[in-house]
Design the sequence.
């Protein structure tokens, strides 16, 4: 018996799918005689005789038989449709598209005491598939890891979604064969031929023979082709969220290590020693003692990147060195703008450039990034183009 015989027409007439016209006629006569209600008085005779008649009506007509054979490629026994009134499958917005594909997307959402898995079989356009894969990727990467068992299963789901962008061969065979028939019934022969031709990619040898018969009997029209989907892009979309998340984490680590200053401006090998003069009690002996170090920060004077200002509501002392033990140079007013050129290893002191080009030191807690008060025209902290 035929493997694809969804309505059972070949089975009721005891035929194989490649049965010839004479065999169909002979088997019908024998079975009709056996089950005709005039001769068979069993309670099921009428029902069986009607099935035999319907099967003979379909299989004895070449056009109807071809339609039935194709419909059996597209639909199983359950919910077998009216094969002579098929509706064209459209995308999720009701638009016709000969490049539709059936995709399967799995999702997992973690709960405190377990996980909830769902699976979606969707007929989608490529653009719709891109959105669905991206949304599902975010859900799986964010919500699928609550338990050890869920962690392992979520990895499998993500892997299956990634590998499965081309869709199941059988599902897509059904989709394209259905639409080939539906387009043909609406007189859209170019679309019907395109779908039937594309369906051959998913068909076995026997099924290809049926599709070839269908293509051969279509009217000659201008050929249109189905554009293949970009499967690499669909796979890449599923990696966008983890890549973005990874970059955010790396960026956070870099910003944390660099503190307020951007780390690539900090040249840690360029250290400067700061000295204080020490006089020995009871004599004239004089010596110098290292009291602090500073790390240089290279900064282009034409860039505003390393411009900082005194926090609102504060004024701050500017010292000759990175310590309160050094003498005071001046007082910086509220919101005064300066350029940061260095930082102490403990990040407690900034070395700053003042408007006149002199260097001094202020505590980091009193400065915040950005321009505060307007920079004077003759200031040396910023070169205007």
Sequence:
């Amino acid at each position: 018996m035929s493997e694809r015989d969804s309505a059972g027409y070949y089975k009721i007439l005891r035929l194989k799918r490649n049965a010839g016209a004479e065999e169909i006629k002979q088997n019908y006569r024998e079975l009709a005689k056996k089950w005709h209600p005039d001769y068979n008085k069993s309670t099921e005779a009428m029902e069986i005789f009607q099935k035999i008649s319907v099967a003979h009506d379909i299989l004895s007509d070449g056009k109807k038989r071809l339609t039935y054979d194709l419909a059996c490629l597209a639909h199983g026994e359950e919910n077998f449709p009216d094969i002579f009134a098929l509706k064209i499958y459209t995308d999720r917005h009701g638009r016709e598209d000969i490049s539709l594909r059936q995709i399967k997307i799995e999702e997992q959402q973690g709960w405190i005491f377990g996980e909830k898995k769902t699976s979606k079989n969707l007929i989608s356009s490529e653009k719709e598939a891109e959105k669905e894969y991206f949304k599902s990727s975010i859900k799986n990467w964010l919500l699928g890891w609550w338990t050890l068992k869920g962690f392992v299963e979520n990895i499998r789901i993500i892997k299956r979604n990634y590998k499965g962008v081309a869709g199941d061969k059988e599902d897509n065979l059904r989709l394209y064969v259905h639409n080939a028939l539906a387009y043909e019934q609406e007189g859209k022969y170019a679309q019907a031929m395109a779908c039937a031709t594309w369906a051959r990619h998913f068909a076995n040898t026997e099924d290809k023979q049926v599709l070839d018969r269908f293509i051969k009997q279509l009217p000659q029209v201008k050929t249109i082709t189905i554009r293949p989907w970009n499967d690499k892009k669909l796979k890449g979309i599923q990696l966008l969220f983890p890549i973005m998340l990874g970059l955010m984490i790396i960026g956070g680590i870099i910003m944390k290590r660099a503190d307020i200053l951007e780390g690539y401006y900090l040249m840690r090998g360029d250290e400067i020693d700061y000295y204080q003069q020490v006089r020995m009690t009871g004599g004239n002996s004089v010596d110098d003692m290292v009291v602090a170090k500073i790390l240089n920060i290279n900064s282009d004077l034409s860039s505003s990147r390393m411009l900082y200002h005194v926090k609102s509501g504060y004024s701050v002392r500017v010292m000759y060195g990175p310590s309160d033990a050094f003498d005071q140079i001046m007082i910086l007013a509220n919101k005064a703008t300066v350029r940061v050129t260095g930082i102490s290893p403990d990040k407690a002191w900034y070395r700053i450039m003042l408007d006149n080009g002199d260097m001094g030191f202020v505590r980091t807690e009193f400065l915040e990034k950005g321009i505060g008060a307007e920079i004077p025209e003759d200031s040396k902290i910023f070169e205007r183009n």
